[in-house]
C-alpha cells in the first residue's frame, strides 16, 4: 500500500484512517521543479472511508497533491501526465523506489528521498466540462 510511505501520513490518516488506499486515482497535472515532482491527483470518494461531513455535503470526489522530493534517476517512457494512475512504492534504505503507470502507457520510474501529501480537498464533481 503506497500510502504507508507518506512521510507526513498524519494528514492522510486524520481523514481516512490507517488503511485506506484509493483504488481509482487520476492525475490532473504534474509539476517538475528543482529536484521534485508534485502530482495533483483526484479520486472518487468511497463512502466507507470518507468523513461524514463530505457525505453530508454530497461530495463525490477528492483531490490532493503528492510531492516526490529529492528525485534521483528519473526515467519516463511514453510521456503522458494525464489520466488514470497506478502508484507502487518500495523503500530501500533511505530512499523510495517509485513506479507510476499513467493511462496504461506512460511509465515513470524514479527514486525519491521523501514522499509528502498536502491540500486534501473534497468537492462535488457534476462531470460537466
How would you characterize the overall build of this protein?
The protein is mainly β and 129 residues long. The protein has helices spanning 9-16, 52-56; strands at residues 25-33, 36-44, 61-77, 83-92, 95-102, 106-123. It has one domain (2-123). The protein has a six-stranded antiparallel barrel with strand order 1-2-3-6-5-4. A hairpin with a 2-residue loop joins strand 4 and strand 5 (95-102). It is globular, with a radius of gyration of 15 Å.
Low-confidence stretches: none
Side-by-side strand order of the widest sheet: 1-2-3-6-5-4
The residue fraction in helices comes out at 10-25%
Shape, per Cα inertia axes: globular
- The total domain count is 1
Q: Helix count, per DSSP?
A: 2
Specify the structural class: mainly beta
Task: Please outline the helices and strands.
Blueprint (H helix, E strand, L loop, with lengths): L8 H8 L8 E9 L2 E9 L7 H5 L4 E17 L5 E10 L2 E8 L3 E18 L6
Antiparallel strand pairs: 1-2, 1-4, 2-3, 3-6, 4-5, 5-6
Briefly characterize the structure.
By secondary structure, this protein is mostly beta strands.
What are the salient characteristics of this protein?
2 helices; 6-stranded antiparallel β-barrel; mainly beta; 129 residues; 6 strands
Amino acid at each position: 500500500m503506497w500510502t504507508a510511505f507518506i512521510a507526513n501520513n498524519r494528514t492522510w490518516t486524520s481523514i481516512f484512517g490507517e488503511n485506506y488506499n484509493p483504488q481509482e486515482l487520476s492525475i490532473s497535472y504534474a509539476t517538475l521543479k528543482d529536484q521534485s515532482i508534485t502530482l495533483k491527483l483526484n479520486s472518487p470518494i468511497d463512502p466507507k472511508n470518507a468523513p461524514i461531513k463530505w457525505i453530508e455535503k454530497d461530495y463525490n470526489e477528492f483531490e490532493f497533491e503528492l510531492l516526490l522530493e529529492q528525485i534521483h534517476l528519473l526515467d519516463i517512457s511514453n510521456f503522458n501526465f494525464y489520466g488514470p494512475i497506478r502508484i507502487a512504492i518500495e523503500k530501500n534504505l533511505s530512499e523510495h523506489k517509485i513506479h507510476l503507470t499513467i493511462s496504461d502507457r506512460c511509465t515513470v520510474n524514479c527514486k525519491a528521498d521523501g514522499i509528502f501529501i498536502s491540500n486534501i480537498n473534497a468537492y462535488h464533481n457534476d462531470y460537466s466540462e
